[in-house]
Predict the structure.
Amino acid sequence: MQKKDDFFINVENSSFCPKKPLIIAELGTSHNADIVKAKEMVCAASDTGSDCVKFQMVFADEILHPKTGEVDLPGGKIRLYDRFKTLETPIEFYEQIKEFVESKGLLFLCTPFGMKSAEILKTLKPKIVKIASPELNYTGLLEEIANWGLPVLISSGVSKLSDIETAVSILKPASQLCLLHCVTAYPAPETDYNLNILPNLAAVFGVPVGVSDHSADPELVPALSVSMGASVIEKHFCLSKTDPGLDDPIALRPDEFSKMVRAVRKAAEIGAQETLAFYSREKGEELVRQILGSGVKELAPSEKANYRLTNRSIHAMRDIQKGEIIKKGDYAVLRTEKILRPGLEPCWEKLIEGRAAGNLIPSGEGIRFEDI
């Protein structure tokens, strides 16, 4: 089992080495493809004391089917697929922002969501890569990333222990791996975090652990995570919660993020016992006990209903008639999300091509065992 300060991602050689918890400011797509705003956000994140700035490389076609459903926005309902289309950003943006991030002495981090974004990200020669929770079970993407030989951060929200085991078995042999505990809810209740799971995950999988935090409080989950062994803390960052980014309402403003950084650094300095005692006095022993939880890996109450919907599965890309031979391009590994039914796990992707459809499979719906 690793101690809380055993691992830090060194910017120079991209390796895990003893230092301090790595603090990641998740900008995601909140820049709205505006390079000026992105640079402003990077400067603000740097001023908070964060070590790393993270982006998301979005292409709607490799994440969602157009029929996946609608999302409520201030301007009214819009197809979730169409909202993701607005987040697509040219490669030139990432080239410029990576150079700018590194000029500030920060670590550039980006999440690919499929093979296209992975191919582009690889050309940028990143020093490290991050896999988001919904792609934890995307075995094809994990196999591609494992071939890069880079350190990998992988979030484990809305997952079961068996899902994590499969992902680790693909990545760990070739990559230095850090497993980030996560609750896939926006915002996530602090009491859902079950932080006692951190030393257990570290012991079971033999990797350093961290937390990707979606809770509202700037300090509680991050600081308590450090006391439980986290070597990485990731949290969404914004300039204003009223900005139009998808994650801005649940992100931390610069003043809040600075508060989090100070809390994390203090927790690393004073150690687990004093950190737990401090927050028990300040926030109450019962709340701290609830946040620490049982240490048993299970779906959190706030994310349980999204299991197999947020995660990836195999979906039809056109109406496939009963008896038709399923060809490459007729299906894709996507998030199910709003209204579609989930399909087979992504690990079955290579076995579908050439099979005859056993039923009519409507475009967008998940392809199930009974359909082939």
Remarks:
- Residues 308-372 form a domain with the Type Iii Antifreeze Protein Isoform Hplc 12 fold (CATH 3.90.1210.10).
- The chain has two domains: 15-292, 308-372.
- The longest helix spans residues 254-270.
